[in-house]
Write a structure and sequence with these properties.
Elements: H1 2-35, E1 38-52, E2 64-79, E3 82-97, E4 103-120, E5 123-133, E6 138-139, E7 147-149, E8 155-165, E9 171-184, H2 188-192, E10 202-203, E11 209-211, E12 216-233, E13 236-247, E14 256-266, E15 271-281, E16 287-289, E17 299-301, E18 305-317
Antiparallel strand pairs: 1-2, 1-18, 2-3, 3-4, 4-5, 5-8, 6-7, 8-9, 9-12, 10-11, 12-13, 13-14, 14-15, 15-18, 16-17
Length: 318
Amino acid sequence: MKKILSVFTFIVIIINLSAQTTEIEENLKKQSSDSLDGWKTSGLISLNLTQVSLTNWSAGGENSFSVNGILSLVTNYKKGNSTWDNYLDLAYGVLQQGNSGVRKTDDKIDFTSKYGQKAFKNWYYAALVNFKSQMTAGYSYPDDSTKISTFLAPGYLLGAMGMDYKPSNVFSLFISPITMKMTLVRDQNLANAGAYGVTPAEFDSFGTVLSKGETSRTEYGGYLRALFKKDIMKNINLQTKLELFSNYTEKPGNIDVNWEVLVVMKVNKYISATISTQLLYDHDVDITIDTNGDGIIDSIGPRTQIKEILGVGLSYKF
């Protein structure tokens, strides 16, 4: 009888311990699930400096100094089936070479805010707002007197509604069949010239403005945005973004393309090398070509635009 009571007591103890363990596991799982909710913030700050100083250098050359900065911030909020993702990318760079003045080499403002409500599995009903522009005036060097861009000239404001596919934290795909894209040209001289696809001004035979050029242009179409961000190797992070837009009502086959790539290679906590590339194509943006460099424009029309920046300097990633 004592043996039976001892076995029974042992079984009861085991059951109680098992129940307690199961309860602890469930509490931990619940806490882990709850911890996914709330705000999550990450970012990258990078400052790259380059200097060349020559004194009585027989091989020739010019003194130069350049600085380029990058700020990339990501703030995400999640609660239950709702998500809110915010992205801010800022970049600015200048160069001073020889006796020439300071020239801009990079200038970018890119802000995106996206709200999603879970539909099923990894798909969300989503709405997105994107704004792009630059901070200061830009010139077509060596001509530093004719302004070709400035803040909100151009500026791009895009609003879209569609579906967002988020299978993991490293990849997302937003597809929108309902998109409005507005091009802003808040510089009247550029607007009068019809820059960036807005309706130009009307002039008489003496060059007098009869009606001013429009300072905005609205398009309606479809939009796709793919984002990938991951550490592809130890101390090497890859971020890439692809944006496509097609105007339904005007030449829908001429798709606007924006493809950006940022590779960050860490040397240590505060020193890294960055490679930044951007490919742009917009059928409404005309690029002038001077083949011989004689100041005479040989052709004008839409062209594929490519920018590449390589830098080594200070950085902080959080």
